[in-house]
Amino acid sequence: MNITFRQMRLFLALAQTGSVSAAARTVHVTQPTASMQLKEITEAIGLPLYEVVSRKVHLTQMGLELAKTARAISNEWEAFEQQADGLKGLTRGQLKVAIVSTAKYFIPRVLGSFCTKYPEIEISLEVLNRDGVVKRLEENLDDLCIMSRPPLNLEIVDEIFMPNPLVLIAPKEHVLAKKRKIELLALKNEKFIVREKGSGTRMATDAHFKKLKFRPDVRLELGSNEAIKQSVIGGLGLAVLSKYSLGDNANLNDVAILNCQDFPIQSSWHIVSPRGKKLSPIAIIFRRHLLEEAKKVSINILT
């Protein structure tokens, strides 16, 4: 079986893009060249690796296994290149990070300070819902993942690096906004706007209310923090959101954080990677940077 490293990168691009033409552009070859090389790869393996249905490429089981192997080899090679550059006194390469949508309120500023220190590092940032990040984690597509509720069914390395308080918010003019101490029972006639099922915020909120034996009257279920905030401002109900999604000065906006017993819900941000994964030198540097910057971000949000 004779497959070149360049051919493996082409097949990995095919798996990632689902298109021969897109894969060809990714590795900078013509489409006829890409088609010919993919045919050579299939002949070398001796089994079908993919099929084209409605102009979209679908990998067979063997194709998925080849993509997994190619990805592992590519990651190892990138790590080697970074180590070689490190010995030369250089810090360059690519960092791949996947984050849940709520983390977008603070991760970009962390990446900004990181890029200032290491301008030659290329950043690939995926912002997804929790299910999307878990899927990428399962497929080992990133150096690190940032989320608030790591999966329990995967073998992972999980490190807490920052608190993630979930607060109860209401419109600024709501009658409860002026109260200093609100009992949970005072919320029984209130409508609630919640995140979609499967999100980290929703999971933490459901678990918290279940523990307190409180059943919120849900009016709306939305998949966006921004949509929830606008719905709260519009008077459609109360909501539980990460304090990070409200900005550094939450109570200066059009919502108020309610002073309710049993709130905020104590949650945390986690750095997650597959167990057994060897972090690249750049990923190790970024993890260290993330831990340092987390202290500054936390102070701004929690004070």
Q: What is the C-level CATH assignment of the largest domain?
A: Alpha Beta
Strand order in the largest sheet: 4-3-5-12-6
> Helices and strands, in N-to-C order?
HHHEEHEHEHEEEEHEHEEEH
CATH superfamily (homologous) name of the largest domain: Periplasmic binding protein-like II
Oligomer: single chain
The termini sit apart by 61 Å
CATH architecture of the largest domain: 3-Layer(aba) Sandwich
Give a short account of the largest sheet: 5 strands, mixed
CATH topology of the largest domain: D-Maltodextrin-Binding Protein, domain 2
**Count of the domains:** 3
Count of helical stretches: 9
Overall mean confidence score, pLDDT:
89
User: Which structural class is indicated by helix and strand composition?
Assistant: alpha/beta
Beta percentage is 15-25%
